[in-house]
Sequence to fold (720 residues):
Amino acid sequence: MKEKKFTLSTVDGCKRLLAVFLCIILLTSAIALAIQNDGGRIKIENVKFDSRGALIDGDLYYPYGTSDKSQLPAIAINHGGGCSKGVVKGFAEELARRGYVVLAFSAYGSGLSEYPMYDENGEGIEGVSGKAQGMLDAVDFLRNLHFVDKTNIAVTGHSMGGYASSWAAVLDCGYYTLNDLMINYLADSFGIAFTEEEISQDANELAAKYLNDDQMLVYEMKLAETTEWYNTRIKYCVPLGTATMAASNMARPQTVQVAGYDVQRFVQTNVSMICGRWDHNFPFLLGQKSIFDGETWPGTYFQTGDALVEKTWLKVDASKDTAEQLGILESTSLSNPAIREAVEQRSTRMIISVPNITHSGEFIFPSFTRAILPYFEAAFEYNNGSIYGQNQAVSVNKVNWELREALNFVAALAMVGFAVALAALLIKGKFFASVKVGHEESEFAPFKDKKIKILYLVVTVAAACLGCYWANNSKHQIIKQSKFFPLDGTSNAAYIYLFWVGLFLLVIAAIFVLIRKKTDGDYGLKKLGIAIKFKDIIKSLILACVLMLGCYGTLAIIEYCFKQDYRWWMFVFTEMQPYHWGQLLRYALIFMPCYFALSIGNLYLEGDGLSKKEIPAMVWFIVIGSLGVFLNHILNCYGLLFLSNGGTTLTILSPGTLIGGLVIFVPVSLYIMRKLYKITGSIWTGTFFLSFFNAWLFVSAIGSRSYYPGTTFIEKFFGF
Fold:
């Protein structure tokens, strides 16, 4: 029989597979870069900018050929809670393709960003609120770029990033109109006592009325200075998928003093809120009742006095508690004098919804990106101009980033294959040879009773489904956020899932051991290769470490060469700082008992699956092990549809948004679990590697928001 060239059974076959997987990683990453930079038309730079002593990590996108004379509109964009800048890559890429300067960055303590000594409000590390999460510093960074039009800067962000954007606008713009500022200047500097009626009049006319010629010169200098400052404040704030901006004092007017009189004012920026109709925040915007917690928010969210009309330019007036409808987004533009005036007065408001989009799906579905683009095009009156040719707009339907994301996912799968091939190669070497358990010691006989086999299928699916349900709906925190365990609370969903599914399967496996002793003979847990020598357990741990470093090595290559990482939705593997490795080790210790139990439960209950032909057996193993997760996800996303108001008030995926990532991670984990078991005949290597692998996913995908940089190497490594 002709020897297979690509096989895990031989040394040469393993080497060929390693080469193939590495080629796939490099090729897909190179193509992904070409899509990301639009065939070389967009320049992408990694930048670090200061945030009160901490370095914030960001990616700057702008058209090639940009010069100091370009004066392009700019947008700072931030991610949501429990993730980092990579999730908003798609938004950044598409906006940059339309000629904008875009800065996508990781918030405080997320990704490669450090945590500052104090936040934008001057609060220290112990009481830090970090409401703007670095967004103010991002805006200042953009303002200092010579090719940015400082009068045309917007902030946007998804979920918690929308909250951060809102607070940045509040802190940067305040509530005083330009007219208010000048009236206060007249009152404070010249001692003019205005009547309550006068404070609503034009400040320039009041100055001409009360000031002499010399005083007017001083006033005009102050007016020019204040006008320049006012015009360079954040012009547009676009929270994505969030209603939490209400907590930022942006949605409702605030009381300020003008010449000693209390008046009501909105924050001085233009606002557009964009949500998916299946977003759990969307009901709040329409004054509907949320299925999630039963809370109802007023439909007069912007103090309009009327029901909100989507995609409508609204001009709000806090002093009169009214809003005027100026036109529809698609049919009007800033060429409309009324809209232009309202925009310049920073008083426009708009709400946009996207059908059939969930909260955690908003940064993965292109339809949500397509909803964002028209607003910025209309607001800035700008689309491209310099990339494809003067005044040649890029269609809103021309969205390419999902292909780049798909290539990143293919590369991630190739990385998994690389790890498996590396394990098969190393196990054939002298040092790791003793890790492998003899075939006859680890092979199972088939289940003889078909009823038992059916029972196995049922309990396996039920375990995963119930584990997802508990994880997605539990409000308990197994591991509270701390300096030792700094990851965002989003991670608790995965802890709960791994714990409950592992425990459930372990108990069921123990029951099956007793059943098989009575029916089939002794098929105890030792068949899983648990009872190996202690030194071989240590070697299994070392092997898992080598596999982990091998995977990270491939990431380092594509990060350096192509500015890419491994990702799809919430399945994310990125580069890490030294202290991230300390975090990885701590979280891996949590995962090890979970994966030990999961390996026992899945592999033991799988029974005769191991004796089948490899490919059908693997497919069967993955499908059965993942089916519960997929069923729960489908029910969770769509099961309440008919209970909602035409599908518009559905609440889904909260608080356990990471459950969406399990749809991908569980099948991948099952593949790794079974392949490493087949290679070694023991569950130890798979348990160790999956613990490291999952911890890497957590550290990469979930923002910490609590990291304080240490001073010594040990402090920096462990993040204390």
